[in-house]
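Hi R.,

Here's the chain you asked about this morning:
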Amino acid sequence: MDFDKHAYFAVFTLESHSLVTDGVHSDVYMPSKGELKRERRKAAAAIKSLQEKMEEKLRMELEGKEREAELKLRKAQELGKAEMAAVIANEKAAQIEKMAEANLHINALCMAFYSWSEETRKSHSVHKLALGALALEDALS
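And the predicted structure, written out as tokens:
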């Protein structure tokens, strides 16, 4: 906004000086060509100064926006990492739970096998004892 006001004023000032030179108002002060050149230089310098100020302002705003965007990006990355870590932790917990359940099944199968083996061993011993008793009875008779 400030740039447009100053630029307009500078152009208006230069145009008003040129209107005075057409001789319509003879009682009005007419600046010399040197004064007009100085005024034009002043106006150009003012415009250039305003441009530089606006460029600096825009550069500062852009840098601020870039910092803000970088901060948001970092936060988003950290949030993504945290979510990924949570998902991995949940998956590991589920795997550990499944492994514990599988371990219980394995232990139950081991106990069943041991029980069956023990039963088979006793049955085999009883069978041998019965065969030995029959053999002894046959030998005595």
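The CA atoms of residues 109 and 115 lie 10 Å apart.

Let me know if you need anything else.
M.
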